[in-house]
Structure formats: structure tokens, C-alpha cells
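To: structure desk
From: M.T.
Subject: fold request, one chain
Message: Could you run this one when you get a chance? Sequence is below, nothing fancy, just the single chain.
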Amino acid sequence: MDKGTYMAVSPAAVIPGALPDFRIYVRTAQGTYSLWALEGNKVTTAQLARLSEGGHREIYVDLEEQFKYEQYLEDHLGHILENKAASDDQKAQIFSKVSTNVVKGAFEASLGLGTMDNAALDRTRKLIENALAFITESKSLQALTKLIGHDYQTYEHATKVLWLTVAFLRGREEILEQIVPGYESRDENEKKAILQQCAVGALLHDIGKVFVAHEILEKSGPLTEVEWEIMKRHPLNGLAMLIDTQVPVYVRKAVLHHHEDFRGGGYPMGFEGEQITPLGRVLRIIDVFDAMTSRRPYKDPMPPMKAARIMIGAPAGPAQGGTIPADERDQGMQKCFDEALLKKFIVFLGDVKLGG
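Reply: Done. C-alpha cells follow.
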């Protein structure tokens, strides 16, 4: 038995022969931790099968090995997501963990530089390349429902916006044609590259918040006028951070435009209608949808289809007599969105059955 401090690891993340050489433990019925494998890199498929047969849904590594384990997850994400023995829920949790770490790393690396760090951008692209097949599978979207309703934190929010954006855009060539004219005539590799670039924009859409104080980002009450002005700068900050990178112009513009309202009144430029890039209009919809369906300091998460009804301007339900949304923050929302894109997004939500 060992008296260390442990972190839970999904057996689904273990690729025989690839895991680092740390020790692996299992938890006993008495709540203690028993050594299961002395060298993780020598674990075999047969051992994993016996572990599963024994009812162990989690294995454990020493907390001191956390960084090494998380680096392993990132390096082998593509293979882990292809593991047919793992459930979609297990894959979703692993993908979410890796994605959150990548976004967190991008924020932390960029904070000291004032620009998007090239290494962080490479990590972002590699994450998306390794995960693209998984996050476009319809089954993975059912696993995403486990994430909807979680707390609204910048890193987790970015992961969900990535997931929903890629899943929504995949196969919708008419929208991708708006984003990149000539898309429909491209070959499959070029089309995949465009979807990956859209995913980069989705994952990094809030990168400018790196310059917004945590006290403002996490404030439970209304922002002061000064705090609100600071918050409204984050799309401009995001553009500035990406300006010298190889991120395409249409992605940079989407980062700048993701808080612009289709009928005017948004920020930071006050653009409206066709002045807002199509990818920016898509991110505006998905950014709001995730915010509404996430737990916030001032309100509980909203069921997905209730959020959708409010976004299109329909009554929210019995609250307030069923004539206006129950939360005044949600009123007037229909002016924010490109109606044609929003309708397609609502159809998408119905197709993937995200619930309530």
C-alpha cells in the first residue's frame, strides 16, 4: 500500500507501450491505494482487459506525476480518441482535459509576451488536428451534453465553443462557402484545413481576455462602467495578439467580431449585418449559447432548447407569464444574431438532441 496523493486516470487513456514509466495504482474496497503496475510503459492489453473485468473504472498515478501524464495525453490524443475500447464519454472527458490545458497554456504563455506565442499556436493546431475526427462524430456530441451546464470558465468555455463550432460547420458547405469563398470547389485536404482554421478561431476567440483581470472575469455582480470598458477591449486585444501569426485573416476578423450584433449595438467596432465576417457571426451564436447553458455566478445553467427559444425571441416559458424571458439579461437578444445562421444552428441542436 502507498500513502501518497493520487489523481484518477481513465484506463481508456492508456495506450500499451506508450504510457510514461510511472507507477500505477488501483483503489481498494477499503479506500487505500495498491500498486498495480510498477512501470506504466510496460502495461499490456491483457492487463487492461483484466482490470476492466475486475470492475475498475479508474486507475491512479501519483499527483507528482501529473505534468508527465498530461503531456502524455496531449502527445497521444489522436490515438486515444481512436481507441475503440473506450466509451465516447471517456473520450470526451480526456479531450476536454487536454483542450482545457492547451487553452490555459496559450493564455499563460501569451500573457508575458503580449502576443500569441508560436509554440502555443502550434499546440492549438496539433490538438485540433488530433481531435477533428472525434469532435465531428455525432456520437461525440451526445458526450458533450455531459459538459453542458458546467461552470462558465474561460478555458472550459473555449473547449465547448470549439466542439460546437466544428460540429455545426462540418457538412454545412453553404456556410463554409460564406466564410471562405470558393470553399465548395476545394479538394478534401483543403476543406479539412479550412475547418481546422475555423476551429483555431473558435478555441482562441477569447484569447484577448488574458489582459482582463480575474476579478472582472469572475465578478458575480454587474460590472462598473470602467470594468465594462476593459472587458469590451478583449476582442481588439485578441486581434492584436494574432496579427503577426499565420492565422488567416478571416479567422482574425472572427476573433475581432465575435461580440458584434447583427442589427448593431455590439462591440468593439459597432459593426452590423454584412460588415461582420460570417465566422464571427457563427461564433457570436455559439458563444452566447454556451454562456446561457453554463452555470454562472449569478444564475443556474439553462436547458439547451430553452436557451435556443430565447435566442430566437420566443417566450422562455411560464416565468413572467410566459411573455418575456425570466432573466432580464436575456431580453432583446434576437438583435444579436444573423437570423438565417441562427435557424440553422437551432436545427443542428435538434438533430443532435442536446436536450431540454
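Reply (cont.): The chain has two domains: 1-65, 76-352. Let me know if you need anything else for the meeting.
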